[in-house]
Amino acid sequence: MGQLLAAAGDRLAAYHERLAQLVAVDSGSRHVEGLRAAGDLVQAWCLAAGMAVEREPVADPAGRPLGDVLVARRRGTGTRRILLAGHLDTVFPPGTAATRPFRVQDGRAYGPGVSDDKGGVLAGLAAVEVLTALDRHGYGELVLVCTPDEEIGSPGSRPLLRTLGAEADVALCLECARDNGDLVSARKGVADLEVTLRGRAAHAGIEPERGANALLAAARLTVAFDQLNGRWPGVTVNVGVLEAGGRPNVVADRARMLVDLRAWRVGEYEAALAEIRRLVAQPAVSGVRAELAVHAPTPPWEPGPTGRRLAELAAKVGAGIGVPVAHTATGGCADANLLAEAGAAVLDGLGPVGGADHSPGEWLDLDSVVPRVALLAGLIDEVTHADLP
């Protein structure tokens, strides 16, 4: 175990340099030029680490390009295929890297995407380099995948992620650890819902009875959706956007709602979605029609016996290197959900410790890099020969 820490320490200077370079590249979702530039950097580092690299361009369902999925592979001497999964996209618009550049202060690194998920991607690559330096090749194949669209639900990467998840024995996901150091062993499922309501316009003073108010129907639907909260344990329904009408003296003939649905368990997720479909099919205002579109539905990742075994193995490795390891469930969705759906045993949060994701204060604990890279490398090595359910 001491060798793991020493080898991870040998990679620290390179990790810092790479992190500064990667965070300096704007790579928000759909910023294809920046995402490909970030992919170029990671590809060069993977090639230098002796990995074979493939790039696959992906697009959203409307055919709009999203960037490339990068897949890097390294063969070992064993039989188990271990997938390391991270993403290169951030939630920040072009220009953020210039206005809020990478910096280090009081042992923390700051900058757009430093924790979510550029620090995690680089930890995965560093773990591969640690195992290579220690001549530990007991895996059958190590596969590092970096997607360009995780922050928008992976609409283009889903087919490849499902293929990789089905092929993998274990998927170790590189989202950074929670700010208290916890790994992630379960995630809520998410569906992004869009409701379009069409009514009939009329003069609000002279003949309002001839109208069919889409705004009123949307308001009543908002209340009905809100009443679904608490019907099933852990299910949340949030109407985040309601747009309607154009003038106060016109009965609104149109409305649009954007809704977030989340659930811990697959059965509850499906039941809530079915009830939402029923409500949309029966708008509460005569003459108003409503349509529901479900974007990027991602089912819950529920922990199974193999996932719990991975958490046990991580705790074992952590004890050997002096890193206490606990794990938790989180309401945030990630590519881990899709990999679990595809059949892989999954453990997440295996990047360094970070926090304040999606905000100007996003940070990464630089003191956590060496122990967390050692933990990840040790877990990969442990998985190659451990008994798994």
TrEMBL record:
<feature type="active site" description="Proton acceptor">
    <location>
        <position position="150"/>
    </location>
</feature>
<dbReference type="InterPro" id="IPR002933">
    <property type="entry name" value="Peptidase_M20"/>
</dbReference>
<dbReference type="Pfam" id="PF01546">
    <property type="entry name" value="Peptidase_M20"/>
</dbReference>
<keyword id="KW-0121">Carboxypeptidase</keyword>
<dbReference type="Pfam" id="PF07687">
    <property type="entry name" value="M20_dimer"/>
</dbReference>
<dbReference type="InterPro" id="IPR017150">
    <property type="entry name" value="Pept_M20_glutamate_carboxypep"/>
</dbReference>
<dbReference type="InterPro" id="IPR036264">
    <property type="entry name" value="Bact_exopeptidase_dim_dom"/>
</dbReference>
<keyword id="KW-0862">Zinc</keyword>
<feature type="active site">
    <location>
        <position position="89"/>
    </location>
</feature>
<dbReference type="GO" id="GO:0004180">
    <property type="term" value="F:carboxypeptidase activity"/>
</dbReference>
<keyword id="KW-0378">Hydrolase</keyword>
<dbReference type="GO" id="GO:0046872">
    <property type="term" value="F:metal ion binding"/>
</dbReference>
<feature type="domain" description="Peptidase M20 dimerisation">
    <location>
        <begin position="186"/>
        <end position="285"/>
    </location>
</feature>
<dbReference type="InterPro" id="IPR001261">
    <property type="entry name" value="ArgE/DapE_CS"/>
</dbReference>
<keyword id="KW-0479">Metal-binding</keyword>
<keyword id="KW-0645">Protease</keyword>
<protein>
    <submittedName>
        <fullName>Glutamate carboxypeptidase</fullName>
    </submittedName>
</protein>
<dbReference type="InterPro" id="IPR050072">
    <property type="entry name" value="Peptidase_M20A"/>
</dbReference>
<dbReference type="InterPro" id="IPR011650">
    <property type="entry name" value="Peptidase_M20_dimer"/>
</dbReference>
